[in-house]
Amino acid sequence: MKVEHARMHAKHRGHEAMHAEMVLILIATLVVAQLLLVQWKQRHPRSYNMVTLFQMWVVPLYFTVKLHWWRFLVIWILFSAVTAFVTFRATRKPLVQTTPRLVYKWFLLIYKISYATGIVGYMAVMFTLFGLNLLFKIKPEDAMDFGISLLFYGLYYGVLERDFAEMCADYMASTIGFYSESGMPTKHLSDSVCAVCGQQIFVDVSEEGIIENTYRLSCNHVFHEFCIRGWCIVGKKQTCPYCKEKVDLKRMFSNPWERPHVMYGQLLDWLRYLVAWQPVIIGLVQGINYILGLE
């Protein structure tokens, strides 16, 4: 036993310096990559968002096929098919009147499902850590796998649908003409028209609607409830769709039970980096180590 231990030490003698170099390369690559991504996002947000969305959509597919995660692959195909149809409808000119509601309802549905799935997955993980799974005679590894899988499903599709929703929101709003990413709107907004969907507003701000209410922002522009919620929460827009004034989300969502949806959306934005760019950065680090002969 001692002889084998000595041989092992002799075989790996001098590797400490190599491991230190590999750690330094990893840290340096992470820092440089983060700085470059931040600059790219600030200078060219459209290309950054498109490439990130493509990364988010394709990278998990590669690991799914490689690791034979067929259940995830089936859900991914169904989600991609419906989202492709919705995106196609959102990018058509002229825009069909029913398209904005269709887009926001679809992405809001996925958003709520991903939110609920993530919460259930997180609770399953915490129950397993506290040993509560034993009350139901469930093995710890099975309970943990179940929780982590649901957590991954919720976070991944939550991030993906928000990116697609933001892209569709830009296309639809610019087509309707009341919103442009830079410059003035191309059409004048009437007091009785919603700038998100371009449809008439029939319910007064002070009235209680049967299906939905009407919201008035601090800039005094009014919108359908579902439209402005989709614009702010699903489409990730924090400004008025017409005049670009900052939207006060705390004032919009006074109900404390609605605010976690806003925080959950911010969490998804933070996790985008881990899903889309972390595998690329790790692959780059491995390539540098290979070129330098560090294994």
From TrEMBL:
GO terms for molecular function: ubiquitin protein ligase activity; zinc ion binding. The keyword Transmembrane applies. It is found in: Membrane. One of its GO terms (cellular component) is endoplasmic reticulum membrane. PROSITE patterns: ZF_RING_2. Keywords: Membrane, Metal-binding, Transmembrane, Transmembrane helix, Zinc, Zinc-finger. The chain crosses the membrane at residues 20-40, 69-88, 109-131, 143-160, 270-292. It is a multi-pass membrane protein. Residues 194-244 form the RING-type domain. Its main location: membrane. GO terms for biological process: ERAD pathway. InterPro entries: RNF121/RNF175, Znf_RING, Znf_RING/FYVE/PHD. This is Ring finger protein 121. It comes from Macaca nemestrina (Pig-tailed macaque). The gene is RNF121.
